[in-house]
Amino acid sequence: MRRALGQRAELVTFHGLPDDGEHLACLFAPWDDTDPPLVRLHSECLTGDVLGSTRCDCGPQLDEALRMLAVHGGALLYLRQEGRGIGLYNKLDTYLLQNDGVDTFEANRLIGRGADERGYLTAAVMLRTLGLERVRLLTNNPDKGRQLRAHGIDVTETLPTGVHLTTDNARYLAAKARSGHHLSLPTLDTEAPA
User: Would you list the domain boundaries of the chain?
Assistant: First the structure.
């Protein structure tokens, strides 16, 4: 189902996706049909996207992607994969461990979950449903491109997001860099409590 979002973007909802999530796409026109459109896969982060938490970079990444898409066109897929796929309540439980110095990936493991449980089959299905089988991907996470390719999406280019480093999220970003995200981090005190 399509819903107009102002004059610059359109929301698209989906039924029959491979999982139970209420995922949506935010489409920004126009994009040049000769080049693959810019696409951002953004995993839901209530604390960062809505409540303004500074312990992650999710809100700034979402804002950056929306600004870029408003200028260049493309699609943002808002994926209901809170807490790297472990859910909101579990994520909030991991915050307590992170407060004691455990990184976000290890905190997930300590509560009996995977370090990152997100999968991108649903995103690939959403893209194909929208007719977007060739895309330029806006991400620092190489797993997103790998998984999209494994599910038949041609990722022609990966464009990095900005590095939204603050003293509050330095340990979080350092953990993402150690996990393989393509981040070039300036030196900050990453041992400070989050």
Answer: 2-81+118-178
